[in-house]
Amino acid sequence: MKKILIPTDFSQNSYQAIDYTMKLFKNETCAFYFLNTYSYDSHGLNAIEMLQAEDDWFDKPKEESLQHLGELLERFTGDNGNIKHSYHVISEYASLVEGIEKQVKEIGIDLIVLKGEIIVSKNVKKIIDQVRTCAILIVPSAASIHKKLNLTITSTFKQAVRTLEVDAFLNILSNTNCDINILVLDEEESITAEVKNNLKLFVNHLEKFPNSSVQVEYMKASRSIKDYAITHLNSIMCITDKKPGLLRKIGLTQSKAISVLEKISKNPVLAIHQ
């Protein structure tokens, strides 16, 4: 059974991401883990005041988290619950990134689903940057499910694409037909022999998935990835986040994947790690 982790802050955007994900995997046998992380509002309290705080002060955030998780379960799993799906709730005293890292490791998560926003949040940036053992699906509030699932994988193919996380995503969709578009981020006339070889290997690999058809497109000089995404709002756009270098690790630069994500914020985006 595939395991999908969906952090939630109980916002409308969060609920829309959950609804999209459950519809996306409606034909698949999978377990959904709804995670809410919480903290204590200790602003203005010194160490002695913290020690003297009543039990209710410590219990309240946990109780509120569990109450909202219970309401979430009732909302999404009522009389119309999918028998192929199982549902679990997790309430954790931790930062969002720490909570996700812990559950990914302990449960063996196959996919993380995050709510998308017009401006990419610091949390999304941190999660893509730090949680590098599984793919991350970012779902904007306007995303909707179409009759035919389409996945567009973008890359320059200047180096071989790591297939582990793409495979994991497609394996969750084992009972769902999927059209895969490969968008080479260069003009066909300009690509090198190495790019051609990396592309060929990747196409051959994807063609092994029985429920998928694969097509290749090349970026035209007059178009940008933003232009492409706007005309393909029914497509999940897949982008690759390269392994952080020294300058990125110390905060002087940010991932190019984040820059791309900011340009295509109206599409669902699958972020994979190189």
Question: Helices, strands, pairings?
Answer:
Elements: E1 2-7, H1 12-24, E2 30-38, H2 47-52, H3 55-77, E3 85-93, H4 96-108, E4 111-115, H5 122-130, E5 135-139, E6 149-155, H6 164-172, E7 178-184, H7 193-206, E8 212-218, H8 225-230, E9 235-241, H9 246-249, H10 256-263, E10 269-273
Parallel strand pairs: 1-2, 1-4, 2-3, 4-5, 6-7, 6-9, 7-8, 9-10
Antiparallel strand pairs: 5-10
Provide the β-strand percentage band: 15-25%
- Characterize the overall form: globular
Please outline the major beta sheet. Answer: 10 strands, mixed
* Percentage of residues in helical conformation: 25-40%
CATH topology-level fold name of the largest domain: Rossmann fold
CATH class of the largest domain: Alpha Beta
- CATH architecture descriptor text of the largest domain: 3-Layer(aba) Sandwich
Can you characterise this structure?
The protein has 274 residues and is an alpha/beta fold. The chain folds into 2 domains: 1-141, HUPs (Rossmann fold); 146-274, Rossmann fold. 38% of the residues lie in helices and 24% in strands. Helix 1 links the parallel strand 1 and strand 2 (30-38). It is globular and about 65 Å long. 31% of the residues are buried. It comes from Algibacter amylolyticus. InterPro entries: Rossmann-like_a/b/a_fold, UspA.
